[in-house]
Structure formats: C-alpha cells, structure tokens
Design a protein that fits this description.
- This protein is 0% helix and 57% strand.
- A hairpin with a 4-residue loop joins strand 3 and strand 4.
Length: 294
C-alpha cells in the first residue's frame, strides 16, 4: 500500500522549503527529493497531496534543465505530471572600473561590494544593478571629486559599464611656533625651547631661527636649527650667555620658522636679564692715629 515520490533535480541544483505528505528530504549526493512513505486511500491514506519545494540553480550553468517526478508503489514506477523544463540563462553583467588621481591618497568602495580601491579597482555587476561608489580620503588628503562617468563630489551611482576616476589632493603642510621665555642673571647662562606644531598636511622640515638679542646677551648654541613634526610636534633648544654688563630688563625676542612651500611663521619670547645681587660693606676707623682702608 505504501508509495514514494522521487523528484530528480538537475546536477548542482539545491532544494529547500520542502512540504507535503511523507516528509520530503533532499539528498545532495544524488540530487533527489524523496517523499514517503505515502499511503493510498485503500490503505487508510490520503486521496491526494501537493508536494512543493524551492530550488536554487547552479549559478555557473546555462541551457535547458529537466525536472522529473516518479511515483513508486508496489514495485512499479509511474510518471507524475510528466517532466518540467526550465531554460536557465546567465544574467548579463557589466564591468565598472575605478582609477585614482591627484597628489593625495584615499580609497574607493562600492555598494554592493566588489570594488575596494585600494587593491581591487575593477569588478563585474549584474545588469540592472545600481552601484554606489564612495570615496574616503586618507588623513593627509581631501577628496577633490569624480570624473568620467560621475562628476562633482557627491554620490556616484553607476548602472552600466563605465570608468570612474576619483581625485584626492594632498593637504598642504602648515605649522605653528611657540617659544618659552628665559631669564638670565648678569654673568650667567640659560636656555629656552621652541616648539613646532603641525596643524595640517604631512610633516616636513622646519628651520627655526632666533632673532636679535639685547646688548650683552649672546647665543651660545647653533642658530637655524631644523626639526620635523612627524609625531605632531617637535622642539629645538637654544642657549644664551649674559655678560656681567648686560643691560638689565626684559626684551621681546623674535623667533622665525621657514619651510618649503609654506609662508614664513614667527613668534616672540621674553628674555629677561637681572642684575647681579649686591651687598653693602661699611668700614669705620677708630683710635688716636690715622690711616686708609681699601
């Protein structure tokens, strides 16, 4: 009385969402779905049953595919509903290519995924798919815009074969200067620090120079010192000597910075000269005689 239904799928196809009497099971080894046992009405079974499933094609195949169903009962096989054929074709694709230009750097990515340029700058997408490109500049650069199939700096959407160029410009280097003050006593020495801070772009060398000093004060270290603020900032130190006759008081001393392609920078610091401390010695003379004390 028991029977079984077997549906044969094309090689490489898959089946899911199987329903109907007999608890259908897909065996990937032979590409068959089997329902059973299914009892006939004379055996207390069902009069009819709808057997359903969902199938996923092999994405690399093309051509006409045949699906055949057989009912096996009491050792005999019967065609059920004949055979169904499906003409499988590959979805046409188009190629999208991305190039980068400019003095800067960055990455272009796509949605849906496929392009990460970076390293992968060309990919194929199914015909009719809208591909959105996004440009992300590196920290030292700015995104300057699209050319080719897109323009401007907004969203770039492509739906057919195209070439797109993303331009990235390097952010120009810029910096600021700051200098600590210094106090010298007449006849002594001292030093101060000048700090170069990168405010934009990629770090490059900066030459730092100390300007005119007050009378009696000399620079004892090298002038025109160079540092590169690779880590964000860098510092150079300058040493000074005050003679015993150096002019007492506070003077504003200029510091300048020079770097290729960047406007000159300057700042000032306070250089103070203090007098040598003194004390008073008094001499008195006594007695009936006379003389001189020196």
């Amino acid at each position: 009385c028991g029977g079984a239904v077997v549906e044969t799928l094309p090689a490489g196809w898959n089946a899911s969402s199987i329903t109907g009497a007999g608890s259908g099971v897909f065996n990937v080894a032979d590409n068959k779905i089997r329902w059973g046992p299914i009892d006939a009405p004379s055996c207390g079974g069902i009069a009819s049953s709808v057997l359903t499933y969902a199938t996923t094609p092999n994405a690399t195949q093309t051509g006409t595919k045949t699906f055949a169903g057989l009912l096996s009962a009491d050792g005999t096989s019967y065609d059920i509903g004949g055979s169904t054929t499906i003409n499988q074709v590959v979805i046409p694709t188009y190629t999208l290519s991305v190039a980068k230009a400019g003095t800067g750097s960055g990455t272009v990515t796509s949605n849906p995924a496929g392009i990460s340029c970076g390293s992968t700058c060309s990919a194929s997408f199914n015909q009719g798919t809208n591909v959105t490109l996004a440009a992300s500049a590196n920290a030292d650069s700015t995104f300057a815009g699209w050319s080719g199939a897109c323009s401007g700096t907004g969203t770039c959407i492509v739906s057919s074969a195209a070439s797109v160029t993303a331009a990235f410009n390097l952010i120009p280097f810029d910096y600021s200067l700051s200098a600590s003050g210094v106090t010298l006593q007449q006849g002594s020495t001292g030093s101060n620090t000048v700090t170069v801070t990168r405010t934009a772009g990629t770090a490059q060398p900066v030459t730092v120079s100390v300007g005119t000093l007050p009378a009696g004060v000399t620079l004892t270290s090298a002038n025109n010192q160079v540092c590169t603020p690779t880590a964000g900032s860098c510092s150079v130190s300058f040493s000074y000597s005050a003679s015993t006759s150096a002019t007492v008081g506070s003077t504003s001393v200029s510091v300048s910075g020079a770097s290729s392609g960047v406007a000159a920078k300057s700042t000032t610091f306070s250089l103070a000269v203090t007098a040598i401390p003194t004390y008073t010695l008094s001499v008195a003379k006594a007695g009936t005689g006379s003389g001189t004390v020196t």
